[in-house]
Amino acid sequence: MIRNTVKRQLFTLFLTLTIGVSLYAQNTNKSKPIVIEDQGSFTVGGTVIKESGTFDPIKHGAFNPADQVSEGQTLHGDHAYVFYQVPKKAKKLPLVFWHGYGQYSKTWETTPDGREGFQNIFLRKKYPVYLIDQPRRGRAARSTVPGVISAKPDDQLWFGIFRLGTSSEFYPNVQFPKDPKALDQFFRQITPDTGPIDFEVNTEAISALFDKIGDGILVTHSHSGGQGWLTALKNSNIKGIVSYEPGSNFLFPEGNVPDPISYVGGTLRALEVPQEDFLRLTKIPIIIYYGDFIPTEPVENPGQEQWRAALSMAKLWRDAVNQAGGDVTLIHLPEIGIKGNTHFPFSDLNNLEIAELMAEWLKEKRLD
Amino acid sequence: MIRNTVKRQLFTLFLTLTIGVSLYAQNTNKSKPIVIEDQGSFTVGGTVIKESGTFDPIKHGAFNPADQVSEGQTLHGDHAYVFYQVPKKAKKLPLVFWHGYGQYSKTWETTPDGREGFQNIFLRKKYPVYLIDQPRRGRAARSTVPGVISAKPDDQLWFGIFRLGTSSEFYPNVQFPKDPKALDQFFRQITPDTGPIDFEVNTEAISALFDKIGDGILVTHSHSGGQGWLTALKNSNIKGIVSYEPGSNFLFPEGNVPDPISYVGGTLRALEVPQEDFLRLTKIPIIIYYGDFIPTEPVENPGQEQWRAALSMAKLWRDAVNQAGGDVTLIHLPEIGIKGNTHFPFSDLNNLEIAELMAEWLKEKRLD
């Protein structure tokens, strides 16, 4: 017990020193230009639907948004959109960043208070960076299935679920900037779906991306966490996964699925997959991070409860994959002394420290 | 007459030589890295709506997409989204690129066949580049007003209106790549509105952008053409406008509004503004470009007809602004020997030549 405590303290000291030195190096680098060898964008995956009949360019070719004729026409939709940048002297494996629920690629760009996000931070670390908008979201809004934008106000719901605080009150010492302009920008990162969320459509598109770019590392957030595991089942070009606060769809093998976890506001169920599929997740290194303000015991606030369930399930999942020979690390940030993080550690005030942790892990796993 | 012809031939020769030399320089530069001094993203403009009642974080704080309670909550929406890059040793005035109808910032990025678009081309020319997604489009999808995504197929409609050809048949010698993959990417650039198009919302957001960044040059395409003039009425930080194929909303002064122009499929009406507002458009240099396949006389194809009307109206507008002391240049590309361009000259096969024309004009107007 004492030995463990000493070991942990030494580890914390080591982390503090390494991160301290790196942060210093990084801060002095901040105004250095980024040299971009190549940058561009494309859509990937998706499908084509076609309306029956024949398109007549003379009869049907006039713009008439109120009552546009579709006869015989196609629609190309359900693709993902990708913006990529490759820095000079780039490392071999690109980082592919996938946003969470109600969010888009902005997640990884400039932070709500105008600091550099993971896009720039990891370009500076010489990683090729790919930012995704998943099908039916953001720039990949062209859906083959109709959708409704309700425009129903829900900022305060997300303020709670994203663990900035409760209602409009920040948690004490939360790593979120207190300038009201930052919160304004943060709320404007929320964006609606333009069609139903479809895991098959999404994972096919991201798998198609890895077919196109080859080996790479997938970085997921929240709702893309579960979809990330599903994509890794489809594509062995995914050589590692970094998952920030996965919230659902943890995959367990047939016959070994844990009981659902109830929480105030819902029930978190594991997803059953064939043993053979499950074992694919043991072939790549995976790291999971959770931030602060996640209770260990049931509380009355659903915004926190949801993450109590997720963290509990994630621990079961880590153990299941590791027992099958896998390499899953789960870091609950407050346990290593990093406190105050929201559901968005990569854009929180201490995001350089968070990035450093990820960079160290990539190095340790020889993914850099 | 003979003198004029000789002059025109000399001008064409001069253009060919300058462009030739520049293109050569540019092609040899193509693989040179782009040095980025600063890059990032933000939202700008927009509004906040609030539902009546009181948000209760315990009662209303659980995620329940099927029936989410909005009581007492806010929604931050109707902003524009902007991604910007500032190259090293940048010119003073940034280029602010605004997409057209049914499109988003992709318009200016990698072309459908994977060549560099105006984003990279003008970064290489040392311009700071700002790419907009207008409110209720792309990454700025968060609308304060409900919307419906119909997912009705309309690719062939746009194939016609964007003047690639008729139905699915390319125009002969059209400057569009014939690889089917390019057309697939092109169709995937189409994206729906997530709420009603609202000129007031859009022009306020883009004006707020110019408040934030200061002096700059606005580059518009198609539907943003008319909105671009309207934004220039609101914000004198717009120091010049480059407009590719503006299609509607040409502003004329009270009492001097031309007759509507009828075409197969619709009627193009000018927009009346107070004389005082109109005169603001005489204070900045403006250039307008139109591509090929625009008939001079009525034809039966609505996809072409719409542009016959637009080009006719644009000529009336140029004359009206210039007669009031303005500086509007209108280039119909085939008339200076540049043939085969679609509605998207900046991503057509000859887009380096198109960019060179724009760069020369900026230089001539001391906007570089």
Automatic annotation (TrEMBL), chains A, B:
CDD domains attached here? Esterase_713_like-3 (cd12810)
Q: Which UniProt keywords apply?
A: Signal
**Does NAD appear among the keywords?**
no
Q: Does the keyword Signal apply?
A: yes
Q: Where is the signal peptide?
A: 1-25
Domain of life assignment: Bacteria
InterPro entries noted in UniProt: AB_hydrolase_fold (IPR029058), Carboxylesterase_BioH (IPR050228)
Name of this chain's protein: AB hydrolase-1 domain-containing protein
Q: What is the lineage of its organism?
A: Bacteria, Pseudomonadati, Bacteroidota, Cytophagia, Cytophagales
